[in-house]
Design a protein that fits this description.
single chain, alpha/beta, six-stranded parallel beta sheet, 10 helices, 15 strands, globular
Length: 322
């Protein structure tokens, strides 16, 4: 089968053996894949958790059809239209754990379905389960113009947030954040953004920040969070190291939590997918929660898809069809 593989000379489409499902695995005939920021690093040979390196089939998000079941797989049957996340997505066939997938709604095509699994699982966990957002509270999403950021704002709005703030350093994308749930859009590269957040919250700061940026905004986030507020760190687009104002963190008594799928067990991931289905799946099926597709590329043009992502001018998801 064809797959997009990282090798000694970089990533390229290669012929590899079709995998065979074992245990609770499902073999998926992939029809479309969503690109994610982590894919760009793995394409350059960087590890993502335990995955990566020479011989790695890249990709982590897909939609397609069940082709075969492992002996312990439950909840799906051959022919079902499904979407999910996991390694080796950029291929004609991939393996998925039966607890790490969703049935694709009948009103979505494969391209649309491939945009959702990572964003839904990541941001329901960050905003609701870990972030503890309650109706009437305020939230700031750092890096809101990414696919997962757009989903975070929509989930916050769905769960009853009274004020949703999104950040983007790009003027065009910042101008479109209100289409996806933002009441206020700020530029996190402008030192005055904290003042804007405080002005919008009567000087108190927000109840919750979901931070995909970190780096230089880490201490600014503390100043923009209210006393006894919460910060959930899900990314590091702004860098992995920065100054941190420990005194301000203590003074505001902020609950600061880091989350990632890279160190979670399969049991933890299954629980996250189950919670998404239990809590917000109706909003997915009704298309209340959805993501824009910026551009669709054919599998043979996957390098162009990555170039488009690295140009950093897109809004929403980049999709590759297989």
């Amino acid at each position: 089968m064809k797959a997009y593989v990282y090798g000694p000379e970089g990533a390229r489409i290669s012929d590899v053996a079709q995998p065979k499902p074992k245990g609770a695995q499902v073999l998926v005939r992939v029809r479309a894949c969503g690109l994610n920021r982590a894919d760009t690093g793995m394409r350059k040979g960087h590890a993502h958790g335990a995955a990566g390196g020479v011989g790695t089939v890249l990709g982590m998000e897909w939609a397609g059809e069940v082709a075969e079941l492992g002996p312990d797989a439950k909840g799906v049957k051959v022919g079902d239209r499904i979407m999910g996340s996991g390694g080796a997505a950029f291929a004609e066939y991939t393996l998925a754990d039966h607890g790490r997938l969703f049935h694709a709604p009948s009103n979505m095509n494969f391209e649309e379905a491939a945009t959702l699994p990572v964003a839904l699982a990541t941001m329901h966990n960050a905003v609701v389960t870990v972030g503890g957002l309650q109706p009437g509270q305020s939230v700031l999403i750092q890096g809101a113009s990414s696919g997962v950021g757009l989903m975070a704002m929509q989930i916050a709005r769905l769960k009853g947030a009274k004020l949703v703030i999104g950040s983007s350093t790009d003027a065009y994308r910042r101008g479109r954040l209100k289409e996806y749930g933002a009441d206020l859009a700020v530029d996190s590269s402008d030192p005055k953004w904290v003042d804007q957040v405080l002005a919008a919250t009567n000087g108190e700061g927000v109840d919750l920040i979901v931070d995909q940026v970190s780096g230089k905004v880490a201490s600014q986030n503390l100043a923009a969070t209210k006393v006894l507020g919460r910060i959930v760190n899900v990314g590091r687009l702004g860098g992995t190291h920065a100054d941190f104002n420990f005194d301000l963190h203590a003074a505001r008594r902020i609950d600061h939590v880091g989350v990632t799928f890279r160190t979670r067990t399969i049991e933890e991931v299954r629980a996250i997918f189950a919670e998404v289905h239990k809590d917000i799946w109706g909003a997915v099926e009704s298309r209340k929660l959805q993501l824009p597709i910026d551009k669709v590329f054919a599998f043979d043009d996957i390098d162009q898809a990555f170039a488009h992502m690295e140009a950093n001018k897109h809004l929403g998801k980049i999709v590759v069809t297989v």
